[in-house]
Amino acid sequence: MKKPPTSFRAAYDILQQHANTLREQDEPAIDQLLDIVQESVAAYQVCQQQIAAVEQALAQALTDMDAAVNEGAGAAAATPTKPIPAKKVKAKAVKPPPAPVPSSTASTGSFYDFADDDIPF
User: Which domain holds residue 58?
Assistant: First the structure.
């Protein structure tokens, strides 16, 4: 068995390599299978440890951020603020939309009268 990996990337590469080896074999190489399994288990453990460390660090960072936001919100609520005056805007006259153009069906009475023009009987 080779020396176990120490980084996530190296461990992940080993797992991918072993998965490809097993996938591409026509028949299992029993002589190599024990080594492949042992290396894969060691690589998997390294990956799991790294993922757990990242999850823990992320959870701590989010907890710290929430505490800072809540602390800042309390301080902001205690600080009196001056209202911002609204700007005065002069209203512009709005033009009415153009009148609708009469359609060709309006003169004949209904749409169906117009649609029947192409029927040969």
Answer: 8-78
**Is 37 within the bounds of a domain?**
yes
Q: Determine, yes or no, domain membership for 62.
A: yes
Give the 3-state secondary structure of 49-109: HHHHHHHHHHHHHHHHHHHHHHHHHHHHHHCCCCCCCCCCCCCCCCCCCCCCCCCHHHHHC
pLDDT at site 11: 96
- The structure's pTM equals 0.53
- What is the distance between the alpha carbons of residues 94 and 9, in angstroms, rounded to a whole number? 64
The count of domains in the chain is 1
| pLDDT per residue as tens digits for the range 70-101 | 887 665 555 556 666 666 656 666 676 676 66
In sequence order, which residues have a C-beta less than 8 Å from that of residue 15 and are 6 or more positions away? 40, 43, 44, 47
Q: Which residue has the tokens 């299992």?
A: 28
Whether the per-residue pLDDT at 6 is higher than 70: the answer is: yes
